[in-house]
Amino acid sequence: MKLNEIRDNADASKSRRRVGRGIGSSKGKTGGRGVKGQKSRSGVAINGFEGGQMPIYMRLPKRGFSNAKFASRLNIVSIGRVEEAVAAKKLNPKSTITVEALVEAGVLRRAKDGVRLLSDGDAKSKLAFEVAGASKTAIAKIEKAGGSVIVSAPVTVEEPTKG
Question: How high is the pLDDT of residue 160?
Fold first, then answer.
């Protein structure tokens, strides 16, 4: 067998149905769209329209809200990932580990509003962290290994208001 002899199996791909090509083709005349009306024509956009009646999505009450505009966006880092960077000699275990140090070491791509430390992995070396947030188990693991965690409030950038 040669590369130029490779073919699909006989019925591997079905040829598409050509609609509107005569009554004898089984999809002629109306082309499978039924008869007349808005739906039989092109450019129909009636999702959610209930014939002039107030639509269900407008009749039902709205609930909840999103605080995404003011929420702080934090980088998430696990203890295991930091330990890998320490083992690869990208991070200095004697200095305090901050957002800038993690970006410089290549653990994070870019600094957002701060770092939240999670407990995935084991803390082997004595590390000092200065982060915007940390889980209780992460703090417990680091303190058990002899390290320390300073949790400071995340720094959010305020956008100027229009007015």
Answer: 59
